[in-house]
């Protein structure tokens, strides 16, 4: 049986790096390539057993030409840009016509698409199911990821089989070779370490659905297997939320405070409303939070509650259900930076 040729983007990042480890474990079935920018990191991936394609996601002709040589593309490096995904889809389509490749795209999105601006004061009640396709049509086009989600789910399925993995707030230390940390819980941890105070947006009463990074990787694998075997929905039936539990942000920050207090790095564990200057501090916030004023408050204080019904239907079973379990390990990694 010939190997399924897979191109993975975002492998130097948190999500892609962790998934790479699971893909490489299936070397008797998959031939795994990573698309990275810059040659400097090639040998790290080659040592792990991956093949390397070097190039930028900004060169769309290059993306199309590259994609035409693959059966499957898992795009993790970008979750909003339609033209990048379009270039991959065109290439997959050409590869199917010219070389009889399988032509499968798994695009990454995010549950930020249903994020409510609750500013840490409360949590909205609604839990979005990915089986409720009709409800998604009522979302505004301006919602994060929405334009790309529509483009991917409505793509002609006779040309390319498309599906979307939509992660919630991902936590836990990843197994990839470069970035091993996520951003929402990690931002709260960086803040508490730097300022020695348990800052939270508002009262921290907002709720995020969450999933451990290893369970997210197993979600990609379950979907990939389902698409290869024709047992997973795709196209309009191919939007997959990923969550294993829900957590109130105040609980996360309370746990962070306890861990730091035990280490003698924080005295008072009473939660404090996060000041604006902390929300805009580039030393503790991800660059894109600082770039778009208001985004940090929206993300850290917002509510996004989803249900991964479609993944559970295809047999995915998360192994980690308590996001607080990962806090101590994440803090150890941050303190060692
Ligand atoms: N982490 C979460 O909780 C979460 C939840 C929902 C959705 N998501 C979405 O999932 C995606 C990946 O998230 P992540 O946490 O893994 O992020 P990350 O750790 O920052 O990784 C981003 C990856 O994308 C690559 N990349 C970015 N721009 C690129 C470009 N122009 N050309 C080539 N590669 C490029 C980066 O490569 P370099 O190393 O070269 O910069 C890196 O490998 C993002 O779109 C994010 O919005 C994440």
UniProtKB/TrEMBL annotation:
| Coiled coil location | none
Record-level GO cellular component terms = cytoplasm
Gene3D superfamilies assigned to the protein according to its UniProt record, in alphabetical order: NAD(P)-binding Rossmann-like Domain
Classification via SUPFAM superfamilies: NAD(P)-binding Rossmann-fold domains
Q: Where is the NmrA-like domain?
A: 5-79
- GO molecular function terms here? aldehyde dehydrogenase (NAD+) activity
Lineage top rank: taxon: Eukaryota
Q: Which Pfam families match?
A: NmrA
Q: Which InterPro entries match?
A: NAD(P)-bd_dom_sf, NAD(P)-dependent_oxidoreduct, NmrA-like
- Identification of the protein by name: NmrA-like domain-containing protein
Organism from which the protein derives: Umbelopsis ramanniana AG
